[in-house]
Design goal:
Largest sheet: 7 strands, antiparallel
Distance between the termini: 48 Å
Length: 765
């Protein structure tokens, strides 16, 4: 069975649904954790960049402040006045003073002091001609001698030049140049201090920002010029740099040169310089590669575990469905729809339930008739399952709140012809299940073995027990009206006593049969009530006799073979005799009259064996002893009546068996079909068939078909499917499965085996 699990679409759907149920949330959670880890790292790195940029800004601001302070000191230093620097003696002291100022700043490569309109410029190394200093010693790529002279003489505010390559003694160095007029903040400065700074020393403090990341660091002037760059990646075009210089302080995500970057910007309040770092965003993901690997491993393990758990859960959920299917197949006698022809097992179960429902609906009248026959003959049984069937058939009011009685319909035998038989059939069909809404009466009818008689069970709600007889008469009158209005046929009607429990329905049935048998002859349509039978008794006022209706009921129960009703009737008659307090002589006459009634009925029924022990029945010393003997006699009589009734049926079963032997290849052949054809109930046919043949109807048909298939396999070369279909079996795969289960071989193997066996004797000959 488990091998077939993997062929099941439903099991696959269950497994996929469970896998999706945990895989989708797991995927979202995994993505969330991964994205959160990346974002956390990105935020951490970006915040670190902000902090480091602020440190760089503060460091450079401090250095620029130092340079401003040095320029201020130089402007007020008495050793560095125009007179002192030009003096032959004090000039040396001025040079020494400049050297000390230069030594106070670690980022300075050189320091110059220039006084306006002078051709000499002073440094810590001495003095030199302006043209020599900026024409030969320091040769700028983009700062000509004329520009140098103009800027030195005309600058009134500090001037910073971007880093550019400067040739120093035939060696190019990237230098940053700062011009600070002196005195600072003086509208009419008389000189300029020139600072030369190495780019490496200035950008060295920015190297720690990028660490192991690729990217770039920039310092922009107040006007947006790039003062210095520390680049570890692709050079950005000027327009992009212009955009970066105008960014507001903070963290930005930008597309630079076709690639997503994380950009951090801070701005100095001291000199309005802007400090910017750019990093490609993909590096954040590479930094969490170990986390990515760990998450992927955990995800794969969770997926594998989830798939295993999903398969286990799917099999657990599927197992009851599979059991239900196997149970339905076993109960279905091979006539179930092939699962492969349906979308999945649920559709197969739905189709099977619909088929069963159709079968149940078609058999509901038969079930109701069998329950009704059971109630009429034996009363309500003490069996919960049968009680439930009776309730489901609608034969009993809920909670026992009902009144029940039996009615028997019979017709005039003098007008028995085909037309009247058709009319009676339609009337019986109508009264098989009928309702009088105005009277709250439900009627269920069934034909029983007595020729041309139809039994009805009438149920009324237990509303008004004072007018029960009136309600009964209204129902009987309504039945007569139906017969007259629809069929112009008035039957004889026998009515039993009303009981408040279904257990008394068999009593009412015997009473109705008694009333019918003792109906007053006259015009067609005479209704006879069992309760009114006392009106036709011939007893006198001076003499006690057993009630006529009790005697008639006893005789009828014996004729019906109903031992339970017969025993109850005898018991009630004995009680009546006891209460009468009769003289001994009359009492014995009454007792012998009762005994004589039983013997007469036995003789009429052909049960003559009771006369062999008649002496034992006539000798009794008390009414209790008489009751025991009479009960024993009724038991024997009823048993004989049952046997006689059953012995009349073998010829019917023989005819049915012969019919089945001829028609077993008809795929429409069924128990219901045969029961309908021979006008017997399904349960009676099933029971009688099994008692006669030794197996049930379905098994008998199966064996007949098996025998025919085996015969055709051995004696013909017809195709297997043709053989199976020729015996009335349309589900070939199911037949093969059952054939193998019974014989141990498939039909094909069976044919080959017997072909070899038949060829072996020929070879010996």
């Amino acid at each position: 069975m488990y091998g077939n699990h993997f062929k099941s679409k439903l099991l696959l759907k269950y497994a996929l649904s469970y896998i999706l149920m945990f895989l989708i949330p797991l995927s979202f959670v995994t993505m969330f954790i991964y994205e959160n880890a990346v974002n956390s790292l990105r935020t951490e790195i970006e915040q670190s960049n902000v902090n480091q940029l602020n440190q760089v800004k503060m460091t450079i601001d401090d250095r620029m402040s130092e340079l401003q302070e040095i320029a201020s000191k130089i402007s007020y230093d008495e050793h560095l006045t125009p007179y002192m620097v030009r003096h032959p003696y004090y000039g040396l002291e001025a040079i020494s003073t400049l050297a000390s100022y230069k030594a106070n700043s670690s980022i300075l490569e050189d320091l110059f002091l220039y006084f306006h309109n002078d051709t000499i410029i002073y440094s810590y190394r001495g003095l030199s001609d302006l043209n020599v200093a900026f024409g030969k010693i320091y040769q700028y790529e983009n700062w000509s001698k004329d520009d140098v002279l103009r800027d030195l003489n005309e600058s009134k505010q500090p001037l910073i030049r971007p880093v550019e390559n400067v040739t120093v003694n035939s060696r190019k160095e990237p230098l940053l140049t700062l011009l600070v007029p002196i005195k600072p903040n003086d509208p009419f400065p008389n000189g300029t201090v020139v600072y030369l700074m190495s780019e490496a020393k200035l950008t060295g403090v920015m190297d720690t920002i990028l660490n192991d990341f690729s990217g770039s660091s920039y310092i922009f002037s107040e006007t947006g010029e790039v003062l210095t760059t520390n680049n570890r990646g692709v050079d950005l075009p000027p327009e992009v740099l212009t955009t970066l210089s105008s960014l507001k302080p903070g963290i930005h995500s930008m597309d630079l040169a076709g690639e997503q970057h994380s950009v951090v910007s801070v701005k100095s309040d001291h000199n309005n310089w802007t400090y910017v770092t750019t990093m490609p965003s993909y590096q954040f993901f590479s930094k969490v590669a170990h986390i990515q690997t760990l998450i992927l491993m955990v995800f794969c393990i969770a997926v594998l575990s989830g798939i295993i758990a999903a398969m286990i859960l799917a099999k657990r959920q599927y197992h009851p469905i599979r059991d239900l299917i196997e149970f339905a197949k076993l109960r279905g006698n091979g006539n179930n729809t092939d699962i492969s022809k349906t979308r999945n097992e649920w559709d197969w179960i739905k189709q099977t339930i619909q088929d069963y429902s159709t079968t149940i609906d078609s058999q509901e009248p038969f079930v109701r008739n069998q329950c009704l026959l059971l109630l009429l003959k034996h009363g309500k049984p003490d069996d919960p399952e049968i009680e439930q069937m009776i309730t489901n058939a609608g034969l009993e009011f809920p909670h026992g709140q009902g009144l029940y009685f039996s009615v028997i319909l019979a017709w005039d035998e003098m007008i028995d012809n085909e037309e009247n038989r058709q009319v009676r059939y339609h009337l019986q069909e109508m009264l098989g299940e009928f309702e009088f809404p105005d009277l709250n009466a439900h009627i269920y009818g069934v034909e029983f073995s007595t020729t041309d008689q139809f039994a009805l069970m009438v149920s009324l709600p237990a509303e008004d027990n004072d007018n029960v007889q009136e309600r009964v008469e209204q129902v009987i009158e309504a039945i007569k009206v139906i017969a007259v209005d629809n069929f112009q046929l008035i039957p004889y009607i026998g009515v039993g006593t009303v009981y408040n429990d279904l257990a008394g329905l068999n009593q009412s049935f015997i009473e109705a049969a008694t009333a019918m048998e003792n109906r007053m002859m006259g015009s067609s349509g005479r209704v006879t009530y069992f309760e009114h039978l006392s009106e036709i008794t011939s007893s006198t006022a001076e003499t006690f006799w057993i009630p006529k209706k009790s005697m008639l009921k006893l005789e009828q129960s014996l004729k019906q073979g109903n031992e339970a009703v017969a025993d109850q009737t005898i018991s009630s008659i004995i009680n009546v005799i006891k209460e009468a307090s009769l003289p001994i002589s009359l009492l014995r006459c009454i007792c012998f009259d009762l005994l004589n009634s039983l013997l007469r009925t036995a003789s009429e029924l052909g049960v003559n064996e009771v006369f062999r022990d008649i002496s034992s029945y006539t000798s009794f010393e008390s009414l209790e002893e008489l009751e025991i003997k009479l009960t024993s006699m009724t038991s024997y009589i009823c048993q004989q009546v049952e046997r006689n009734t059953e012995s009349e049926q073998p010829s019917l079963i023989d005819n049915i068996v012969a019919y089945v032997d001829l028609q077993f290849a008809d795929y429409t052949l069924s128990l219901e079909h045969v029961a309908l054809k021979y006008s017997v109930s399904i349960s009676y046919l099933s029971r009688s068939f099994k008692e006669k043949i030794g197996c049930n109807f379905s098994q008998y048909i199966w064996h007949r078909r098996m025998d025919e298939v085996i015969r055709l396999l051995i004696n013909t070369n017809a195709p297997l499917q043709e053989i199976i279909e020729s015996v009335g079996y349309l589900d070939v795969p199911n037949f093969i499965r059952k054939f193998k289960k019974e014989t141990g071989y498939t039909p094909g193997q069976y044919r080959k085996l017997h072909a070899l066996e038949s060829s072996a004797p020929q070879e010996k000959e």
